[in-house]
Amino acid sequence: MSDFGKGADNAGGSSEENIKHWDDFYNEVPAPANYAEIISGVRKFIGDAKLEERVVVVTSGGTMVPLEQLTVRFVDNFSSGSRGAASTEYFLEEGYKVVFLNRQKSIQPYARHISSVLDVLELDGGANVTVKSCHASKIQTVLERYEKYKTSCFAITYESLGDYLWFLKGVSTELNSIGARGMLYLAAAVSDFYIPKNDMPEHKIQSDRRPEITFSLVPKMLRPLVKDWAPEAYIISFKLETDPNILLQKAEKALKLYQHNMVIANMLTTRKKTVTAVERTGEVMKIDNDDEDKEIESLIVNLVKEKHSKYIQENLTKSPLP
Amino acid sequence: MSDFGKGADNAGGSSEENIKHWDDFYNEVPAPANYAEIISGVRKFIGDAKLEERVVVVTSGGTMVPLEQLTVRFVDNFSSGSRGAASTEYFLEEGYKVVFLNRQKSIQPYARHISSVLDVLELDGGANVTVKSCHASKIQTVLERYEKYKTSCFAITYESLGDYLWFLKGVSTELNSIGARGMLYLAAAVSDFYIPKNDMPEHKIQSDRRPEITFSLVPKMLRPLVKDWAPEAYIISFKLETDPNILLQKAEKALKLYQHNMVIANMLTTRKKTVTAVERTGEVMKIDNDDEDKEIESLIVNLVKEKHSKYIQENLTKSPLP
Questions:
Q1: Phi, psi dihedral angles at A154 (to 5 degrees)
Q2: Could you state a single Gene Ontology molecular function term (chains A, B) (predicted)?
Q3: Does A129 sit within 8 Å of B143, measured CB to CB?
Q4: Where does residue B135 rank: exposed (0-12), middle (13-18), buried (19+ CB within 10 A)?
Q5: Nearest residue of A to residue B11, measured between CA atoms
Q6: pLDDT value of residue B1
Q7: Would the CB atoms of A118 and B140 count as touching at under 8 Å?
Q8: Do B73 and A75 touch (CB under 8 A)?
Q9: Which of A40, B116, B226, B261 is 20 to 30 Å apart from B10, CA to CA?
Q10: What residues have CB less than 8 Å from A112, skipping those under 6 apart?
Q11: Own/partner long-range contacts of B245-250 (Cβ < 8 Å, ≥24 apart)
Q12: Which residues of chain A have pLDDT under 70?
């Protein structure tokens, strides 16, 4: 049996206690096979950023939590990756370089505008494959933007919670090298629960009786992220709830607890129309999108860019560039 | 609390007891919003089949089981839908009409051969969108086959376990109208567990303590499928295990219990290389695919087509066409 994540309050536990949790987690869950290669790519990507350029790490999609060691079943979080993919496009257009840490098969920037390849192509009488004329102009616009920005985006895919948390740690540590110009935009829907390997059955759970499954709590990674991995970056977390009565209160509690910069709070049912951004300063900003032709992510990115600019300015004043 | 699915042995329970389970399930889980429209489309699709044509219902992909009423988290079954999508193509080429009951966003027939639309298209100097020459010939072949067969395939998408089981019941009942010419090829990875609505929390489970989740067993739908919904069709179920020691034994037990026609047994790790088909007659047929350029689904479809032909012949002898 695993020792950690089982307390009633690992979020608010003492600092030492929590550090033990993170260490235990990374000791127990193996790094993804391509971890070293990916992180070295990220290091180069961030290192190549010009002095005035900003880099944002956008996390996107849900995380998968296996219920069996040879995994047939898993718990997942509802998230198509729509917010992360849309935000990535707006960040790129605002001049950011983007590390796009996304769940395998989640919605992708640019590609999301084109439904299915079989719907947009046709055989023109003879044997030539062509783009249907009704789709041509939209696809042209999408392709132009994709070509323009593709070298400014470094994509990493994950599937399991474990892979996600390994990459988050590695990438945010690299991001810290550019100080306040770095931003973390944590839009992924990360599981709060998991089953430690030692508590997991090896084989597929048999269906001859009702399974009772007890989960362990995932250590709250915002804490080491803010304190140790990327203390200089501007860090934005997302809070999704279904109960409106606890949403803002939970956002404020998280800011107080983890001391990061912003929480973007949203409700499951209205998340495409309205979100509320809360800064650690106490400022509460409601963003409503009434324009059907606009995506709320363009408004969110505008706001966080402005806040990030202010943050960079403040930090420059504190410790000017060499 | 819900009453059903809680016994230790709902698979092997008495017939009356099981019928209660199915009724309870359908009483409790609402039908998908588009149910009537879809089933009426299926009725027309199957009704339009010519007298010598065969129809196969291919189920494909995993089923999602919500953990909360306003669903943020869910349990899913590992399945990309690869087997169902590939098999659908081979059935179409063998002259079958196919009802493709597939999980939303699972792998699709034909489209599966083309990676991403952004990878295959390019802007040719000016503003024209064209297919990259390196992809042109492959896409041409795929499009030709897609165009040829698309009217022979009726696709239905589902996401939750509840929607899947509603469609399965409705579609198989329609299939029964063409007697032995109908086949069910149940390749979907269907959850054995779920949480009845009354046992489910309304809101997102909070992460301040370790959740313990007790699942109920999903009633075994193969029983009413064989007995009541499509008693005249040739029915093939799939069995996926991770433990080789129990695989064949479980396949034989299922055939004895449900009295359908075939189980295709496969192991999680070797399922693309080898499967074992077991007929109710006791015949055991191992299919190995050593040819890297061939998909094992082409061999599976060859075998089941042959067995289906024999089944049709036997049933014609029993009750000749009017």
A1: -110, 110
A2: catalytic activity
A3: yes
A4: middle
A5: A208
A6: 31
A7: no
A8: yes
A9: B261
A10: A82, A85, A86
A11: B247/B276, B248/B276, B248/B278, B248/B284
A12: 1-20, 126-127, 319-322
Q: What is the pLDDT of residue A308?
A: 98
- Count of the separate structural domains present in chain B: 1
Chain B neighbors of A266, CB-CB under 8 A: none
pLDDT reported for residue A12: 43
Inspect the interface and report whether the beta carbons of B72 and A122 lie closer than 8 Å: no
Contact B191 A127 (CB under 8 A): no
The nearest CA of chain B is from the CA of A170 a distance in Å of 25
Residue A8 corresponds to which tokens in the numbers above? 């009633």
Nearest CA in chain A to B217: A210
Let me know how long chain B is. Answer: 322
Nearest chain A residue to B75 by CA distance is: A75
Amino acid at B38: I
Q: What gap in Å lies between CA A29 and CA A89, rounded to an integer?
A: 32
Return the residue in A116, A129, A214 with the most chain B beta carbons within 10 A, the one to mutate for interface testing.
A129
B74 contacts A242? CB cut-off 8 A: no
Residue with tokens 């991001």: A175
Q: Do A8 and B208 touch (CB under 8 A)?
A: yes
Q: Give the closest-approach CA distance of B245 to chain A in angstroms.
A: 11
Nearest to A217 among B64, B110, B210 (CB): B210
Report which secondary-structure segment, H or E, holds B216: strand B216-217
Q: Are strands B97-103 and B55-60 parallel, antiparallel or unpaired?
A: parallel
- pLDDT tens by residue, B139-193: 999 999 999 999 999 999 999 999 999 999 999 999 999 999 999 999 999 998 8
Q: What pLDDT is attached to residue A10?
A: 38
pLDDT digits (tens, 9 = 90+) for A74-92: 899 888 999 999 999 999 9
Residue B168 in domain: yes
pLDDT the model gives residue A201: 78
CB contact under 8 A, B70 and A268: yes
How many residues belong to chain A?
322
Interchain contact, B71 vs A77, CB within 8 Å: no
Nearest Cα of chain A lies from the Cα of B181 at a distance, in angstroms, of 30
**CATH number (domain holding residue A258):** 3.40.50.10300
* A105 conformational bin, left if phi > 0, alpha if psi -120 to 50, beta if neither: left
Give the ipTM of the model, two decimals please.
0.80
Give the domain range for residue A243. Answer: 15-318
In a domain, A84, yes or no: yes
Question: Do residues B158 and B167 touch, judged by C-beta distance below 8 A?
Answer: yes
CB B103 within 8 A of CB B159: yes
* Residue recorded with tokens 């077991």: B278
DSSP state of A157: E
CA distance B82 to B86: 6
Residue B1 domain flag: no
In a domain, A4, yes or no: no
Least CA distance to B218: which residue of chain A?
A: A207
- Alpha carbons within 13 angstroms on the beta-carbon side of residue A290 total 1
Counting as low any pLDDT under 70, the low residues of chain B are: 1-20, 126-127, 319-322
Chain A closest-CA separation from residue B312 CA (Å)? 33
Chain B hits for A210, CB-CB cut-off 8 Å, are 5-6, 193, 214-217
